[in-house]
Specification:
This protein is of the alpha/beta class and 318 residues long. The protein is built from ten helices and nine strands. α2 links the parallel β2 and β3.
């Protein structure tokens, strides 16, 4: 069902992983999706060393039922982001959905290292690429969303809906900061008709993770022999359907300022992964590691919360 037909979306960081899955599933719901990133055919970005491109993502969006448009953009370059937003306005006249999924590092090589052991160079690069890019993109895109005069949705993609340690100081700072960015935008846009939330996938069965374990889409369960938690993993399309469900929800504004999980939204909205499964990494995490600390239940939001699950923004500043 084309629940997002006529909607215009920008997925910033759509080259691979969650960004690609989100773009595809917004396309599945009928949206026109601008897929931005640095890797295009014949011009792969240095850094990740991977073959995926935004051109492929745009084609997957179109194949899914939407319209995919690839636009090469370095989201650390304000002028490039400004040009991207200008193009969207010229071609579409509006922007309804913004997904900030730009990522900035390869954490596997640093996981488990302490503050005094990590690479400062890699860490500060991660902060710049995974936080500054989100701020720059929202800074340039939100005015178009406001000019559109229609309800809008901003989604910040994070990792985890809890405040536990995430295995590395810089990775932890990035992912918790992204949650805070959603809260800040929700607060500042609370009277403007634009909702801002953070969304986390579970253990993502991304292209990079499949390669890491030496498996494919067809043989991925074999990786459970190396890491049992991978058996609770999900494809990038699962979080993609979570974002599409939020974008199609006429009451999504009630969720503004909070962080949600793909598995929790799956239970609420009733969608499945593309293989028909309904993975629940939160349940697996509790079984394997014990209770986590959900962000929406922690003191992070306590000042603004009147009741569990509801964030109420006071009229400040006036």
């Amino acid at each position: 069902m084309a629940t997002l037909a006529g909607k215009i979306a920008l997925v910033a960081g759509a080259t691979r992983g969650a960004g690609r899955g989100i773009a595809r599933m917004l396309g599945e719901a009928g949206a026109t999706v601008y897929c931005s990133g640095r890797s295009t055919r014949g011009n792969l970005a240095s850094g990740p060393g991977r073959p995926e491109t935004i051109d492929e993502t745009a084609e997957l969006v179109t194949a899914a039922g939407g319209r995919g448009i690839a636009v090469r953009t370095d989201h650390l370059d304000v002028e490039q982001v400004r040009s991207l937003v200008r193009r969207i306005e010229q071609e579409q006249g509006r922007l309804d959905i913004l997904v900030n999924d730009i990522w900035g590092g390869e954490p596997l090589t640093e996981f488990g290292k302490t503050l005094w052991e990590v690479s400062l160079e890699q860490g500060f690069t991660m902060l710049r690429q995974a936080i500054d890019t989100h701020i720059i993109t929202s800074h340039e895109a939100v005015p178009l969303m406001l000019r559109s005069g229609q309800p809008g949705l901003i989604v910040e993609i994070t990792d985890g809906d809890f405040y536990g340690y995430r295995g590395n100081i810089f990775y932890d700072l990035v992912k918790t900061t992204v949650i805070r960015l959603a809260f800040i935008q929700a607060f500042e846009l609370r009277k403007k008709g634009i909702t801002a939330v953070a969304v986390t996938p579970g253990f993502l069965r991304s292209e990079a993770m499949l390669d890491h374990f030496g498996v494919t889409d067809a043989t991925w369960r074999e990786a459970g022999q190396k890491d049992p938690s991978f058996l609770a993993s999900e494809t990038p399309c699962f979080v993609g359907r979570a974002v599409a469900a939020l974008a199609a929800d006429p009451a999504v504004a009630k969720k503004s300022g909070r962080v949600f999980s793909s598995w929790g939204l799956s239970e609420e909205y009733g969608f499945t992964d593309i293989d028909g499964a309904q993975p629940h990494f939160g349940r697996y995490f509790i079984q394997a590691y014990g209770k986590s600390y959900p962000a929406c239940d922690d003191g992070f939001y306590q000042y603004w919360t009147n009741s569990p699950g509801e964030v109420v923004f006071p009229d400040w500043p006036p």
